[in-house]
Amino acid sequence: MKVRRQLLLRGASIAAASLAMPAMWTGARAQAPQTLRPTPAQTEGPFYPVQLPADTDADLLAQGERRYRRGEPLALSGRVTDLDGRPLSGAQVEIWQCDADGRYHHPGDGGRADPDFQGFGRVTVDADGRYAFRTIRPVAYAGRTPHIHVKLRLGARALLTTQLYVEGDPGNARDGLWRSLRDAADRAALTRRFERVDGGWRSDLPIVVAT
């Protein structure tokens, strides 16, 4: 009788475990996927254009008949998504930067930027959240490492303002804003590789935001 009772108890335990396992599997499947890390924000800085150029398209090297032939051409692209990796339909990406001599199109910088350089561009992302600009590889100027300013808008809302840096540039370690990115993952998100291509450079900046 004792042996029979032990067998019955063991069978009951196995049956209970079998009933519990499908519930455990279902719970695991129901867990929300891990969200993406948001792109870190940075200051807008003093040189966001007071007056936008007549041409605000994605090609900062061409304005009508004008062509900017100084500096090194850069193809900059990326994809804009929410924290779940979904493309952010309708979002607009803006960039602005100094010319090859380190001058912005801004009265606070003396108004001495080369008029052939557009200096500012805006583009609406495509259905997959992708954007692309044609500009110049950023250059250093007094007190700052090479960088490009970036702003993301969705309708009337500014969702993100940040800056893009050049991986491996020796000026990064002396730049206060770059050093403020104390987390290694935040630095990696904004400090991007610049690769040589025919006729210039290319780089990418994925942008992830909470909506």
Q: What is the CATH homologous superfamily assignment of the largest domain? A: Aromatic compound dioxygenase
Q: For the record, give the distance between the C-alpha atoms at the N and C termini, rounded to a whole number.
A: 66 Å
CATH third-level topology of the largest domain: Protocatechuate 3,4-Dioxygenase, subunit A
- What profile does the largest beta sheet have? 5 strands, mixed
Figure out the total of helices: 3
Structural class: alpha/beta
Mean pLDDT equals 89
**How much helix, percentage-wise, in residues?**
10-25%
Q: Which architecture name of the largest domain does CATH use? A: Sandwich
Number of domains: 2
Tally of strands? 12
Question: Which stretches are poorly predicted, pLDDT < 50 over at least 5 residues?
Answer: 1-9, 11-30
**CATH level 1 name of the largest domain:** Mainly Beta
Cα-atom Rg, whole angstroms? 26 Å
- Percentage beta strand: 25-35%
Shape: globular
Protein described:
The structure is a single chain. With 211 residues, this protein is an alpha/beta fold. It folds into two domains: 1-31; 62-208, Sandwich (Protocatechuate 3,4-Dioxygenase, subunit A), CATH 2.60.130.10. Helix content is 19%, strand content 28%. It has helices spanning 2-30, 176-179, 184-190, and strands at 62-63, 66-67, 73-81, 92-96, 120-124, 130-136, 147-154, 157-166, 191-192, 195-197, 200-204, 207-208. Strands 3, 6, 10, 11 and 12 form a five-stranded mixed beta sheet that branches. The protein has a five-stranded mixed beta sheet with strand order 5-4-7-8-9. The longest helix has 29 residues, at 2-30.
